[in-house]
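Annex B, item 7. Sequence and structure tokens for protein A, then protein B.
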Amino acid sequence: MKIEKKEKIYEGKAKILYATNDPNYVVQYFKDDATAFNAQKKGTIVNKGIMNNKISAVIFKFLEKNKIPTHFVEKLSDRDMLVRKVSIVPLEVVVRNKVAGSLAKRLGMTEGQALKTPVLEFFYKDDALGDPMISESCALAFEWAKEAELNKIKTWTWKINSLLQKFFDERGVELIDFKLEFGKDAKGKMYLADEISPDGCRLWEKGTGEKLDKDRFRRDLGKVEESYEKVCQLICG
């Protein structure tokens, strides 16, 4: 069946989802809109959508080859990605390999400080509440995920972290931390969803420590587009 892009069914801060003529698939459109601090800061990063679509496609393909099921099907155009239709589990899963961002602020630590082991954190997906951090027992108590689903998410997340640390390292980039989202299809099968890009990863250049991610937008560091372009070139060639 030839996939046809139809009506808009959802618009988020960075992407738009469109229905297709197949109920099992949707088109994920990547925008240039940029937000930070739970959308308190807004702006535009020129061609961000094109670059994030390209980067995410490469990384999803890499993870699929390494036995991580993702919602990715194919890259349709510069900004359109065909993905499996999933219901997102309302949890953001964050992995931290070094101290940075909110962890540094929360614990009063210096950014870049090494961790003896990576840290995994859960946040409840709710913009109005500022995506508060929660415990695993909270996720179970409110039935946002079942115990077996949480265990699967944790297992996949640790594997993804190991795979991506090596993936980025081989390209001259250090993976400081990153956010993942997961979703379930109509049959209840779990997939890695959303995107993996400089929007949701802290990426520092090896050797220099130069930030190559959305922190350049958050903190008004300048050279935002140039940093995204650098990551895109390193990842996609």
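Protein B:
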Amino acid sequence: MSWTLENMADEIIALFPYACSVNLGIGMPTMIAERISAEQNIMIHSENGVLGVKGRPTKDNVSPTLINAGKETITVKAGASYFDSSLSFGMIRGGHIDFCVLGGMEVDSHGSLANWMIPGKKITGMGGAMDLVNGAKTLIVMMNHKNKEGHSKLLKECSLPLTGKNVVDLVITELGLFRPKNGKFEIIKLAPGITTTDLNMPELI
């Protein structure tokens, strides 16, 4: 039985120490903001200039001018702050963000990440990902384990254009939690009922 998106988010949250700073990419990682408890005192950073993102708003407290880097409306916690892009990227490039969680198209056994384009398809650009993969102290990739053809997205070598080379610390999919290490993927934890056969990557574990 594979993990749900909520299960994946909870597994990642369990890795966060008290009062750390976290940047969340668009897509799957946004679920994390909704499930972090106030007691953890985690400060979520958004590269468009917000520190202290709380989660999604309700109809009663939504503000069209309060958004994250993915242009989604957000709420903020007490003590939140706002700043311009130059200060925001100074935080990232200066190594002041403890964790970054990004979505991924491919991760390889050397810790390289491809998550920004498929050649021949329309793209909007890499955004802040190229800074985040190099500036955050710990990079976690949160993605589906297999592509539409049923092949593992954890590969020996990425085939798509890279966002960053040798940058990924951990990968979580609906099947388990993994660490790229020495040209293979170390299995840290598998989802309940999942075996190594289900991973479809025998030469990489």
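Comment on protein B: The chain has four helices and twelve strands.
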